[in-house]
Write a structure and sequence with these properties.
Blueprint (H helix, E strand, L loop, with lengths): L2 E5 L4 H13 L3 E5 L12 H4 L7 E4 L2 E4 L1 H13 L8 H31 L5 H19 L12 H11 L12 H11 L11
Parallel strand pairs: 1-2
Antiparallel strand pairs: 1-3, 3-4
Helix pairs in contact: 1-3, 1-6, 4-5, 4-6, 5-7
Length: 199
């Protein structure tokens, strides 16, 4: 039986899970969540994730929240060493970028998009400033290399790409970041790639 993904089409975090499943060729049962009605904040979804957030992955008896944790689970269960190595250095390098996705990217281009597209009340100027800082670091990092780590696509790339690529919806376009744009294009060229609105 396919794992269930409680999903919102416009969520970059949900998209990470859908994208990775497609790249792996792993079928998911997609269960749309009525986000605007707050379906994720009441039972039965709040029983699965008391934090009242999506995505939620339910694979048999395993229930996971947080897109980065879900990517780790999927990589270990279905993806093998290529997507998430188990050696100390390789694993640590991937984890550095998973944490970047959860922190600098989420609080930068992710928050700017939340403000502009969804009307969240937050300091959008600070979010755009954070976005410019992390994008500048990523641009330097990706200049001369194709992938974030290990010379190949890993879940680091899948975790970081969506909110970077969606930045234009928060006033953070990639026009001045050619190495990042080329990296996004390489991800789009991977076999099994699927898009989402605005990507």
């Amino acid at each position: 039986m396919a794992a269930k993904l409680y999903d919102l089409e416009l969520s970059g975090n949900c998209y990470k899970v859908r994208l990775f499943a497609s790249l792996l060729g792993v079928p998911l049962q997609i269960i749309p969540v009525d986000f605007l009605a707050g379906e994720h904040k009441r039972p039965p979804l709040s029983d699965l994730n008391p934090r009242g957030e999506i995505p939620i992955l339910q694979d048999g008896d395993v229930v996971l929240r947080d897109s980065q944790a879900i990517l780790v689970y999927m990589a270990r269960k279905w993806g093998g060493e290529n997507w998430l190595p188990t050696d100390a250095v390789g694993l640590s390098r991937v984890c550095e970028w998973l944490l970047t996705a959860e922190n600098e990217i989420a609080r930068g281009p992710g928050d700017a998009r939340l403000h502009d597209k969804f009307g969240y009340a937050l300091d959008v100027a600070a979010a755009r400033d954070k976005a410019q800082r992390i994008l500048a670091l990523m641009e330097t990092h990706l200049t001369g290399q194709s992938w974030l780590v290990l010379g190949r696509p890993t879940i680091a790339d899948i975790a970081c790409m969506p909110y970077v690529a969606l930045g234009h919806e928060g006033g953070v376009p990639l026009d001045n970041f050619p190495a990042i744009k080329a990296w996004v294009d390489r991800i789009k060229a991977l076999p099994g790639f699927i898009g989402m609105p605005a990507i």
